[in-house]
Structure formats: structure tokens, C-alpha cells
Amino acid sequence: MSDPFKQNLLRLRQPAAPTTFGEALFGPVAWIKKNHPAPDIENKTSTDFSEKNQIMESLERYAQEKLGEDPSAVIKISGGEIAKKPEPTWEGIDLAQSFAELKSKLHLESEVMDLCLSSKEKGKIRIMFVAESFRGYEEFKAELKEGFINQLLPAFSFKTAELFSRMLSAMKLEDEEVLIYPTMSHEKDISAEAMLVAAYFHPEIIVTLGANATHKILKGQERLAQVHGEFFNRKIENIGTFIVVPLFHPSIIENNQNMKKTAWTDMQKIMKHLKKI
Fold it and tell me: In the chain, where are the structural domains located?
């Protein structure tokens, strides 16, 4: 038997190499072979219709159909399995029974706590904003003026605080409906304290400002560019489940007209949820 004939025969006996991304990733499963409608190339970029995107969209639809509402369901596929990823839960957060007890569990400077929390009442907070960090009192005390802007100065420079105050006015939010707390203070992670404050005041929505605050509160590494304006559920064990909506940090929005449009679209989603529009 000639060598070329042998080589061709051996090649024919080998399993066919995957011809698509889907086959390489999942094997020859039937659901990836579904036809997809022709793309509207006038309004979409070519990257939107890459094979990878189509396969991952098919996988998501297939998983949603098969898993349904059963969180314990598992789908076996070639080379692996698909199951619902449980949502992260905040554990070890004890509900404070009084404001004095809450303050005793927090580590912000007393002057900062007085600015941000002392005027707030349980049952009246619509939105709790979670900032990435707070400045020390000495850093901003010279900027203090009159009114609600003082509650924002620990989180922002005066210029950014003015912008954020206008954003809140545009959202038709009253001062008493809003509070703000950080996930970092003096380089210390205090994100558990932010959730302790949320557990006590029980806001209708928690809004994270910036990537770092979003990662800490959602307990994940989601890219802010992909999740901004989306609604997530995060549970505090034995207390309840909270809606979390990530937004871009106001300092990024400040000098970028396109980002302002994006931020306003995201804020309108929140306003609609709160029945402000």
C-alpha cells in the first residue's frame, strides 16, 4: 500500500475537526446548529454577528428554556454541564435595632457620619448611593456651605458634588429620600458597613457609583461598561433582597457629553422604577 494512500486512509478514519467555534467549544450538540436570521447589516457592525456571539446567545436561550425556574437544575452537554450560578449573598450583616446601635458599628469619622446619616429617617430613603470612597473631614471641611451639598462633599470634590446635586434634582429626588455611603474609607474596605446601612434604612434601590463600588456591592467583577443601568438582586442573609443598579461615577460624566447622555438614560430607568416619571 503506497504511503500517500495510507496517509489519506488514516486521515479519513480520524474524527472530523470542529468546523465552527460552537463545535470546538461544546462538541456536536444539536442546539448550536439552529439557523439564525440574516443580520441587519445597515444598522449593526459586523462584530455583532460573529459566530462566537451567535453561539453564546444560543447557549443562553437554550439554558433559559431548559433550566426554567428550578435553581438546582443541571444540563449535561458534551464536555461539561450548565447550571444556574447562584447570586452572591451578603452574610454576617446584623440588623441594627436603633440609629445609635448603627452608628456604633460604623467607622466613619463622627463629623462625616453626622453630615451623611443623622438627618435620615427609616422608611423615607428611596435611593442609597454607594460611592467608591470618602474623603477625610479635614480634606473637605473648608468647602462646606449650606444645604444638601454638604452631604455629598465627603464623596466628591465640590465641582462634582454640584453636578451630582443637579443630577438628583433632575431625578426629582428630595434630600430626605437620598443617602450616600462609601465602600472605602482611609484605604480600608468598609463595603460590609455600606450593606449594614442599607439593612437599617432599607432603600428601594442601591445605586453603585463607579467600577470599584459596583464590584464590591455586587460581589463580582462585572465590567461596568456592560452592566451600567441594569437591575440586579443582592440578598442580605436573614434581612432581605435589595435591588442594585450600577452607574458610572459622576467624575467621569462631568466633562463628557456622551457619558451624560448615557447617565441620563440610566437614571431614567431608576426614575421609572421609583415612579418619578
Answer: 3-83, 89-273
